[in-house]
């Protein structure tokens, strides 16, 4: 679901050259969860903000009541199963590659079950697609604009298990869209708290008369009836159609797609409706319409590595697990029988364990697959799963912009997906005097190799339409103090039609080798929720295989994660 994760790249001539550079080891993207080269620009020196207490004037909404929903209870039960699992006589040493949310989740729940994970991250920062960095002024810039939905039960449980529920800043239950035909104006879908689902969502749609006409609403509702009646089986069967194809098949006017689903498609997977699988849209609508607080949004109160990832790391370490940064894998070394012997790192170190997990993006996994595995159907199907390019832009202005909200905003522009004034929405980034807009630039395939100045110029032209009274493309109004452009040539997997059969289960056909990541099989597709759930499923598979794995780690195989040089 919306708006997650990016890594950055240099200005690359084309994607094939980019992947060739990775495979030859000459590029930092070998770091799992990709790599980062952020270009920044500053026009003047800024005074660093005081390190004193933050004086936040924006008002957040109380945390919604999520604990009694079916999906939350199901997620809570899965979490509890790890804590209540019988303590192993001989804990497994599980080596996990990639410290994004999937790898962190895998390590966390294995540790909860009494095992000893060793989590290896190639870069010097945690988080993968939710990584962030601090610049010389002390300001943070992130790999993506990260939104936490009420419909993310495993993520919400994770926050509760770590005791950090208060780090989510909940916003009013609305979806806010810019109006391209009326520059500077917005249209809202407001979900009333007094109504249960799906009535609150239906009410929000019916009350909005600016984006869709009544005849369009009626045709859209009729078109959705098969999904409502057919349930999950119908939703999964639509994987072979794009959003555009499905809308026309259901006789839904093209204007519905133009007004609503271009924005939703770009927010969900950074691509347009003519490419996105309709299954993705229907899963989101299903969650949003069936759960009262499903579409309610929260922002993290600060940078993700410190505010979310470090509490997970501290929990893992408190239970005997280990997390290492700057540990880049060069090769998966095999035994004679084709199982994993060790992970060879770029510094020459070999890491051995009782089980191995790859929790990296699918593109990194494909580059490091041993040749003898590539024709196995389980791995061969991965060829269709390819990360989608996306660009995340941060712009600091010399003044506080007025035409914005303390919320996520759908830009509905040709080049931008969603954006937010982070100086309003996030406590750590709060600034009463200047705005910092964080914007997702998508689709980005034609822009990923363009210069950062080109991207900023194009972004400013789009912002001129969103802020006609405050921003001009030539900076004759609000001035840019500085910017950061973060490019991700391969972000979340591109959810195009007919991808679903290619998504692998977490247990591979190679004994002792497992996968985690939002591209693996789970019902939340390419999202933070999907990454966390995949880690739980991966941990569950390892626990189910405990006897087999423990028996295999006899005298001929070391029973603990070892290092040799």
UniProtKB/TrEMBL annotation:
GO MF annotations in UniProt: phytoene dehydrogenase activity
Main location group: plastid
Question: Which is one Pfam family of this protein?
Answer: Amino_oxidase
Its localization reads: Plastid, Chloroplast; Plastid, Chromoplast; Membrane
GO CC term, one of those recorded: chromoplast
EC primary class = oxidoreductase
Q: Which GO terms describe its biological process?
A: carotenoid biosynthetic process
Question: Which top-rank group of organisms is this from?
Answer: Eukaryota
**Which keywords does the record carry?**
Carotenoid biosynthesis, Chloroplast, Chromoplast, Membrane, Oxidoreductase, Plastid
Q: How does it sit in the membrane?
A: Peripheral membrane protein
State the EC number(s).
1.3.5.5
Cofactor(s) needed by this chain: FAD
What pathway does this protein act in?
Carotenoid biosynthesis; lycopene biosynthesis
User: Which reaction(s) are listed as its catalytic activity?
Assistant: 2 a plastoquinone + 15-cis-phytoene = 9,9',15-tri-cis-zeta-carotene + 2 a plastoquinol
Every copy of the Amine oxidase domain together lies at: 101-543
Subunit relationships: Homotetramer.
User: Per the similarity annotation, which family is this?
Assistant: Belongs to the carotenoid/retinoid oxidoreductase family.
Q: What is this protein called?
A: Phytoene dehydrogenase
């Amino acid at each position: 679901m919306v708006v997650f994760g990016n890594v950055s790249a240099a200005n690359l001539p084309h994607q094939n050259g980019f992947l060739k550079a990775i495979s030859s080891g000459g590029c930092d993207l070998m770091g799992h969860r990709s790599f980062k080269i952020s270009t920044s620009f500053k026009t003047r020196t800024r005074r660093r903000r005081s390190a004193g207490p933050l004086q936040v004037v924006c008002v957040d909404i109380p945390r919604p009541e999520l604990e009694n929903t079916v999906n939350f209870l199901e997620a809570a039960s899965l979490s509890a199963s790890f804590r209540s699992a019988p303590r192993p006589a001989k804990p497994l040493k599980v080596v996990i590659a990639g410290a994004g949310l999937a790898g962190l989740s895998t390590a966390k729940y294995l540790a909860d079950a009494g095992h000893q994970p060793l989590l290896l991250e190639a870069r010097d920062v945690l988080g993968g697609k939710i990584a962030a960095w601090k610049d010389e002024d002390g300001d943070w810039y992130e790999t993506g604009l990260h939104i936490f939905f009420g419909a993310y039960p495993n993520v919400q449980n994770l926050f509760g298990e770590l005791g950090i529920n208060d780090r989510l800043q909940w916003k009013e239950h609305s979806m806010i869209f810019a109006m391209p035909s009326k520059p500077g104006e917005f249209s809202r879908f407001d979900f009333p708290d007094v109504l249960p689902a799906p009535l609150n969502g239906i009410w929000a749609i019916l009350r909005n008369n600016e984006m869709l006409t009544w005849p369009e609403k009626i045709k859209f509702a009729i078109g959705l009836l098969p999904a409502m009646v057919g349930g999950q089986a119908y939703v999964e069967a639509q994987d072979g159609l794009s959003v555009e194809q499905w809308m026309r098949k259901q006789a839904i006017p093209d204007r519905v797609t133009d007004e609503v689903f271009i924005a939703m498609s770009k927010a969900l997977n950074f691509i347009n409706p003519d490419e996105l699988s309709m299954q993705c849209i229907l899963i989101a609508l299903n969650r949003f319409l069936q759960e009262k607080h499903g579409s309610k949004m929260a922002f993290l109160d600060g940078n993700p590595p410190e505010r979310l990832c470090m509490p997970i790391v501290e929990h893992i370490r408190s239970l005997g697990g280990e997390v290492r940064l700057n540990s880049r894998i060069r090769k998966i070394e095999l035994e004679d029988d084709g199982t994993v012997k060790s992970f060879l790192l770029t510094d020459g170190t070999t890491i051995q364990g009782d089980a191995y997990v790859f929790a990296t993006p699918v593109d990194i996994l494909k580059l490091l697959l041993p040749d003898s595995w590539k024709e196995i159907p389980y791995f061969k199907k991965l060829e269709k799963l390819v990360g989608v390019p996306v660009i995340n832009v941060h712009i600091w202005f010399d003044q506080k912009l007025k035409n914005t909200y303390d919320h996520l905003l759908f830009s509905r522009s040709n080049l931008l997906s969603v954006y937010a004034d982070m100086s309003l929405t996030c406590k750590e980034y709060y600034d009463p005097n200047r705005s910092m807009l964080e914007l997702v630039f998508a689709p980005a395939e034609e822009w990923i190799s363009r210069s950062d100045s080109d991207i900023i110029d194009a972004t400013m032209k789009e912002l001129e339409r969103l802020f006609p009274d405050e921003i001009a493309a030539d900076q004759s109004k609000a001035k840019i103090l500085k910017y950061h452009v973060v490019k991700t040539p391969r972000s979340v997997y591109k959810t195009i039609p007919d991808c679903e059969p290619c998504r692998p289960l977490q247990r591979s056909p190679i004994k002792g080798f497992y996968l985690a990541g939002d591209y693996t099989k789970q019902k939340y597709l390419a999202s933070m929720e999907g990454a966390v759930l995949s880690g739980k499923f991966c941990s569950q598979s390892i626990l189910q295989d405990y006897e087999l794995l423990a028996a295999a780690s006899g005298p001929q195989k070391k029973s603990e994660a070892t290092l040799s040089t």
